[in-house]
Amino acid sequence: xxxxxxxxxxxxxxxxxxxxxxxxxxxxxxxxxxxxxxxxxxxxxxxxxxxxxxxxxxxxxxxxxxxxxxxxxxxxxxxxxxxxxxxxxxxxxxxxxxxxxxxxxxxxxxxxxxxxxxxxxxxxxxxxxxxxxxxxxxxxxxxxxxxxxxxxxxxxxxxxxxxxxxxxxxxxxxxxxxxxxxxxxxxxxxxxxxxxxxxxxxxxxxxxxxxxxxxxxxxxxxxxxxxxxxxxxxxxxxxxxxxxxxxxxxxxxxxxxxxxxxxxxxxxxxxxxxxxxxxxxxxxxxxxxxxxxxxxxxxxxxxxxxxxxxxxxxxxxxxxxxxxxxxxxxxxxxxxxxxxxxxxxxxxxxxxxxxxxxxxx
Length: 361
Known about the structure:
Helix content is 32%, strand content 11%. It is of the alpha/beta class.
């Protein structure tokens, strides 16, 4: 048990410890909770498996981040108290069910961030209530969404993370497209063309689909139309496809029509034809999963005119280096370790190219 004496010891070490990282105690004394609530940094009590109502009342007064991810359940009274917490974050990722009263309480939570990633199912009514939460809300355990639930969540004013959703109906995709902040659906491993067409209408800057490992040409064509959000008369889009393992030439040509940042950082191979297509992409292009690059592909990518990340490339021929030295915009190399003196000199001549320290002389 985390006793009063232990709490006093932790508070004495406060300046040295800063945040109190995962403490191994499964229970906490009520008086110890009162003391710890005075801590001036975040508290991670993820070892706790039970929490009394009195302890919840005390910890709710803590003014910084509070993590209680080990709790499998809490009483309605404890939920009401914890919902009064106003610190940087309140994390209760161990909870797998919430009563109606607890849902009502947490919907009124006034802290900056509420994390309930342990919940795998919620009624439409519960989701509608939680969607009214004023701060950041993460529900990354929810596996599926009805169209009605998606409509409720789409009204939120903060970015929306639903990384647990495995399948998405056409109705849910249509509803989520109305969301005007970042949308993260990284649990999807498959996406129909119809759903992609709906999500492409999403009006937030970031559309994250980092669970997709393959992409049909038709889906690529649909996602490429994502315009994102408009600021100062310009459209800003960030299309995240970080787990995409392969990309056909035709799919690459389709994605190249996207305007904005395009993240394809898990691609380990890129054909010359795909490189030629992606070189025409208007916006930042992240290809940091590539370890090798043919001379022809380098020649094509050298014509790209925005931020280009090739941080995974380990070797370049002199001809490839000279081609990439013509690139207009930021170009990153993080792991390059095989390069001729002539190639290094060509790349160094371009001030926008970031090279490993050994090649910067």
